[in-house]
Amino acid sequence: MGMCLYPYLPNRMAVHWNVNGEPNEFMSKQVVVAFIPCFIIFSYGFLYIISHNIFKFNEREHCIIGGFIKKMTLFMLFIHMLILLINFGDFIFFQTGLTIGISMFLFMLSKEFKKIKGKEKDPIKLQKIRLVSRRIFQVMACGILFSLFLNLEWGFYILLSVISCGSMLFMFYIFYSYIIESYET
Fold it and tell me: DUF1648 domain: from which residue to which, for each copy (predicted)?
């Protein structure tokens, strides 16, 4: 898509926007159209090689890591396409597109926890972590979607708050379930 839009894009493309929606960092269109997709492909390949050759995972763990790598790659491609479309025509704020993208990423991540089928021999703790993690990511995604209804500045603060609180809740739950529950038994 970048090559199709290339002749119609400005020579200096915005790649970063203020909270107000005004661009404040620019790059040449060659970097945005050619270098960023190459970087995304390189990072996908690098993570794939690391997960298959350096860490010796079993097949189930490869499925988990591969799903996460695919979700990250899709998110980066979404951001790249968002930058191209904003520079092609000013019809959406970057923050609005980014908010939608983050929410989609969190919903896809929660679905990834659902796809991981636990075996009967999996510990109860691991099954509970999967269930709670899925719910945490779904609540984060809904909270981030709620921030779309606010003005840009308040939406930005809600976005940061939801991501921060959700991440801390996720880490504290894992800490609780592995360390404190293990200590109690």
Answer: 2-40
Helices 152-175 & 94-115 angle (0-180, nearest 10): 20
Which amino acid makes up residue 10?
A: P
Band of residue 28 on the pLDDT scale cut at 50, 70, 90: confident
Number of alpha carbons in the 13 Å side-chain half-sphere of residue 1: 10
Q: Which residues are registered as beta bridge partners of 12?
A: 28
Question: How does DSSP classify residue 6?
Answer: G
CA distance 27 to 15: 7
- What is the DSSP secondary-structure string of 12-48? EEEEEE-TTS-EEEEEEHHIIIIIHHHHHHHHHHHHH
Note whether 177 and 128 are within 8 A (CB): yes
To the nearest 10°, report the CA torsion of 116, 119, 123, 127: 30
Phi and psi torsions of 12, nearest 5°: -110, 115
The pTM assigned to this predicted structure is: 0.77
Q: Where are the domains of the chain?
A: 1-92, 118-185
